[in-house]
Amino acid sequence: MVASSPVVPGDDPTLLFTNAGMNQFKDVFLGFDKRPYSRATTSQKCIRAGGKHNDLDNVGYTARHQPFFEMLGNFSFGDYFKHDAISYAWELLTEKFKLPKDKLWVTVYQEDDEAYEIWNKVVGVPAERIVRIGDNKGGRYMSDNFWMMGDTGPCGPCTEIFYDHGPEIPGGPPGSPDEDGDRYIEIWNNVFMQFNRTEDGVMHPLPK
User: Boundaries of each Alanyl-transfer RNA synthetases family profile domain copy (predicted)?
Assistant: First the structure.
């Protein structure tokens, strides 16, 4: 368990506030720093009040947005990757927390066939509850299922897990026109840090 880093990062001029649990591990993903551990968990204090990850505009309009929160996270530095990350998430939610499996939906980045196959063939989530999310009109990688910390830095495809509260709650499944309703709520996001995006927009594979 690694302690939360300060909400005002003192060593990253690209961020005004810490907006994600991975911020303190940025140099580890980039290969500039090495920690004495290959796995970590955190409860990171975050502020999202502007920039790419901005929750401020949604405060007061939904029952689940606020600018300050603590983000739970699990991280691997050259240790486990997609197969184990997905399996660990599913095990915790269904075996430890006892969430009904038939209430859980997942999304994957449209081009991430590996994550799709893990969910479908290994975990056993039926295809009708796995949604591929493509790019927005802004261009390639501009997707809700391709995570970036900002205009530059570590990034990669992600897979999200949603809980279905049932048909009595308004809202559609992820990827649908009614996805902003309260029926399907995101409860987990596994980000697979695979690239470093530079100022010229080029995606460079990360060392590990």
Answer: 1-208
How many of the other CB atoms lie within 10 Å of CB of 29?
24
The phi-psi region of residue 156 (left if phi > 0; otherwise alpha if psi is between -120 and 50; otherwise beta) is: left
- pTM of the predicted model, to two decimals? 0.91
pLDDT bracket for residue 52 (50, 70, 90): low
Q: Where are the domains of the chain?
A: 1-79, 92-208
Start-to-end C-alpha separation, the chain = 21
Instruction: Identify any residues that bridge with 45 across adjacent strands, giving them in sequence order.
Output: 70
Please name the CATH architecture into which domain 92-208 falls: 2-Layer Sandwich (3.30)
- Three-state secondary structure call for residue 129: helix
- Picking from 166, 163, 165, 148, the residue whose alpha carbon sits closest to that of residue 203 is 148
